[in-house]
Structures are given as C-alpha cells and as structure tokens.
Design goal:
Elements: H1 2-11, H2 15-19, E1 27-31, E2 49-53, H3 62-65, E3 71-78, H4 90-98, H5 102-106, H6 128-137, H7 149-179, H8 184-203
Antiparallel strand pairs: 1-3, 2-3
C-alpha cells in the first residue's frame, strides 16, 4: 500500500491513470499566442485548432468594460504513448504532493501545492513533455534540443565529476607551490636516479 502510494507520488499519476500509464495518449488544448497586428497570416497549422471566447487570467471582466470577450485559439496536441504531460521529475513530483519544505512532509497540515490551481496556463504545472510538444508544433521557438530527465541527470553528474577533479588538482598543485617544491613526479625521478647510482656504486 505504501509502496504503491509512493510510486504514484514520484510519477505524478493517479490510481486510474496508472492502469493505462504505458499506453495512454493525452489530448491537450494549448493556447496559441495572438498574431501581432500588421503581420502576414501564418500558413495553416498541421494540427487541429479550436477558437472560442475564453476568460483571460488576471484580466478585467468583459461585462464591466462593455467590450466583447476576446477570442482565443487553442491547438489540439497529442502526446506520445506512455508520456505524462504533468511529470516534473521525481523530486518535483514529490514536492508538488508532499510540500515545498521538508517539515511539511512529516506534518501534513497544509494542502498540497498541486491543489492550489493558481497557474494561468493550467490547473496543474506542466512538465517537459508539453514544452517539447509546443516546439514540435511550432508554437514556441526551440532554443536547444530536447533532453529528457535521465540525460539531464547524466550531464549534471559529469559536470560534478569534472569540477571535483579539477578542484582537487588545483589544490595539490597549490600545496606543492606553497611548499616551494616541485611536483611529486620530479621527486620520484630524482629518488630513482639516486637509488640507481647507489646500487651501481655498491656493485662496483
């Protein structure tokens, strides 16, 4: 029971969604930015769109201003089988359910951060899957190639190893210079030469 609950927390999924988690295809309505006035109309998109008057977050009520509601266009995008649009990674998934601070994990006296529903784009925070879907649809410009969570963790580990090795090498070199001596390699070479000379003298 506890293991299943932790699995749902780390994967940011529910019991019903977990039944078809590996084959589920999500259909999302993603808002498309308005075309600037005076610009040429873009070519027809390769995906289906829906246009209707939807309320704009943090905007005044159209009834109070006397203006008609703004028409907003949404792109209908589909995820790949098995992808979770709300997967933020293990750590962020855990924090979105258990709390932002460590003591909230043991004292559940507040609502989960995922229950705030205070985002302007969605009731729940979207993960990297939605950003990739936007780039592939041309809704947002792609600045760099997509990297999944596993690839990002590998890059972080490599950078940490490289920085650790470089810092340890700088510390050893600094210690040798501070002592006024030369690197250990030269000392070892001199010792070997002196020992070989002693051995040669003894054999003579």
């Amino acid at each position: 029971m506890s293991g299943s609950s932790l699995q749902f927390v780390f994967l940011n999924t529910t019991t019903i969604e977990n039944l078809s988690r590996k084959t589920k295809v999500w259909q999302l309505a993603v808002h498309m930015p308005a075309i600037p006035p005076g610009s040429a109309p873009p070519p027809p998109p390769p995906f289906r769109t829906v246009t209707f008057s939807a309320p704009v977050p943090n905007a005044p009520d159209p009834a109070s201003t006397g203006q008609p509601p703004e028409l907003r266009t949404f792109a209908i995008l589909h995820s790949r089988p098995g992808e979770n649009p709300w997967d933020l990674g293990y750590y962020r998934n855990f924090k979105s359910v258990m709390g932002d601070r460590w003591y909230e994990w043991f004292l559940p006296i507040k609502h989960s951060p995922c229950a705030r529903h205070d985002r302007p784009d969605s009731e729940f925070e979207m993960g990297p899957v939605v950003e990739r879907m936007k780039r592939e649809a041309g809704i947002v410009a792609s600045s760099q190639p997509e990297m999944d969570e596993k690839t990002r963790r590998q890059h972080r580990r490599r950078r940490r190893r490289t920085s650790t090795r470089a810092s340890s090498g700088d510390v050893e070199a600094g210690d040798e210079e501070a002592r006024g001596g030369k690197p250990k390699r030269h000392h070892r070479r001199r010792r070997r030469r002196s020992e070989s000379g002693r051995d040669a003298g003894v054999t003579r």
